[in-house]
């Protein structure tokens, strides 16, 4: 769940609206950009979460504790 927490689609839209309101700018958020950003966020979270977990799973627990 934490890998998708940073890519919550509503948060980016809300932040864009907040900045536009505060600075009196006009912003346009396309739905495709929300989907693409969310996809990249999920992919990065999964990749950078699975790679260290797979490396740790291959280590013998006794050896890992011995070197700590």
Task: Write up this protein.
This protein is mainly alpha-helical. The chain has one domain (2-66). The chain has helices spanning 2-5, 9-23, 31-57, 61-66. The model has no long low-confidence stretch (mean pLDDT 80).
Which helices and strands appear, and what pairs or packs with what?
Blueprint: H1 2-5, H2 9-23, H3 31-57, H4 61-66
A few lines on this structure:
This protein is mainly α. The chain has 4 helices and no strands.
Number of separate helices: 4
User: How much strand?
Assistant: under 5%
- Model regions low in confidence, pLDDT < 50 over at least 5 residues: none
Radius of gyration, rounded?
Answer: 19 Å
Mass-distribution shape: elongated
Into which percent range does the helicity of residues fall? over 70%
Main sheet, how many strands, which sense, barrel? none
Q: What is the string of SSEs from the N terminus onward?
A: HHHH
Summing up helix and strand content along with how strands pair, one would put the structural category as: mainly alpha
Number of domains: 1
Mean pLDDT: 80
Oligomer: single chain
């Amino acid at each position: 769940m934490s890998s998708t927490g940073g890519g919550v689609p509503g948060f980016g839209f809300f932040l864009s609206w907040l900045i536009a309101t505060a600075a009196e700018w006009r912003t346009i958020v396309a739905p495709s950009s929300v989907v693409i950003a969310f996809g990249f966020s999920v992919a990065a979270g999964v990749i950078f979460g699975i790679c260290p977990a797979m490396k740790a799973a291959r280590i013998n627990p006794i050896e890992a504790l011995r070197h700590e």
